[in-house]
Design goal:
heterodimer; A: alpha+beta; Glutaredoxin; 2 domains; 4 helices; B: mainly alpha; DUF4395 domain-containing protein (chain B); DUF4395 (chain B); transmembrane (chain B); transmembrane helix (chain B)
Chain lengths: 147, 155
């Protein structure tokens, strides 16, 4: 082993580490941020039956649909935040759907990570999408817009 | 239920060991027959890491040596966790780590150049993202597999 190859190997490791840290920082920054879904791109109202829920499980103001799996470390924290928000906000319901056995939902909503949360308006139309563990202030802000 | 910091602590140790494999594998690529390829320090170290992944995915992360190390040495020095975590996600991720490192070991034994370093690099990225950012690539892979599965099929 020459000194040069060892140095090159260390440089490769440093570059790999730098790229990984960059990916991690960008990923963490995007976690829990809300993406507005324009009604024009997905105007169809969702039937509660799609999630195996009865019609009264949808809120009269908004519904927080949380997609989870068993292999999901951020789901309990999201469940807690959304559960509290729905409990104390009039007309807002929280619905958690385990997509572990619902490949159709994973495809239809292009779920790439869990938790993924959709905020539906009173008609059941998707208005907001949040990837990753939700931030309370972000959800409150989006709910405020759905009065 | 487990302390979520335990798998991240373990992933940190794994990342350091994988970094050693990458550097040794790149600076001293093996030459010669199968025996000399296998009896090479980076190959043996990756073999040990792979065996630990297999241990984690079959016995569960709670019984993994790093988990024991965390409970006896690290946990007493930390405050209680904000919440506990289901052990299934990190256990699944250990399985992904095993598959990646085992593939590197097989290809490395067959003489594919840099197989050990490339496999170690893939696992290193995953372990670093997990330990430093709590980002579990293996868990995301699970959803990708789910997308490929035909509708209606059960887990």
């Amino acid at each position: 082993m020459t000194v040069l190859t060892a140095l090159l190997a260390l440089a490769a490791l440093a570059a790999l580490t730098a790229v990984t840290v960059l990916v991690g920082v960008l990923w963490r920054r995007r976690q829990g941020t809300a993406v507005a879904v324009s009604p024009a791109s997905a105007p169809t109202a969702i039937d509660p039956a799609l999630f195996g829920a009865s019609a009264d499980r949808f809120g009269s103001r908004a519904t927080l649909v949380q997609f989870s799996t068993a292999f999901c470390s951020g789901c309990p924290a999201t469940r807690r935040v959304l559960g509290e928000l729905s409990a104390r906000t009039e007309g807002v319901e929280h619905l958690e759907v385990d997509v572990g056995e619902r490949a159709d939902l994973v495809r239809r909503f292009a779920i790439l990570q869990t938790p993924t949360t959709l905020i539906l308006d009173r008609h059941g139309v998707v208005r907001t999408r949040i990837g990753g563990v939700v931030r309370r202030s972000v959800v409150e802000e989006r709910l405020e817009a759905l009065r | 239920m487990i302390d979520p910091r335990s798998p991240r602590f373990g992933a940190g140790i794994t990342a350091v060991l994988l970094a050693v494999v990458i550097v040794l594998g790149l600076s001293a690529p093996p030459a010669g027959d199968v025996a000399s390829r296998i009896l090479n320090p980076p190959y043996l170290l990756l073999g040990a890491i792979s065996a630990l992944f297999l241990w984690g995915t079959t016995a569960g992360v709670a019984r993994h040596p790093y988990g024991l190390l965390f409970r006896t040495l690290v946990r007493p020095r930390l405050g209680p966790p904000r919440e506990l975590e289901d052990p299934r996600p990190p256990t699944f991720a250990q399985g992904v780590g095993f598959v990646v490192t085992a593939a590197g070991l097989v290809l490395g034994a067959l003489g594919v150049p840099f197989a050990v370093s490339v496999a170690a690099a893939l696992a290193f990225v995953a372990a670093l993202l997990n330990s430093a950012f709590g980002y579990c690539i293996g868990c995301q892979l699970y959803l990708v597999l789910l997308r490929l599965r035909p509708s209606g099929a059960r887990a």
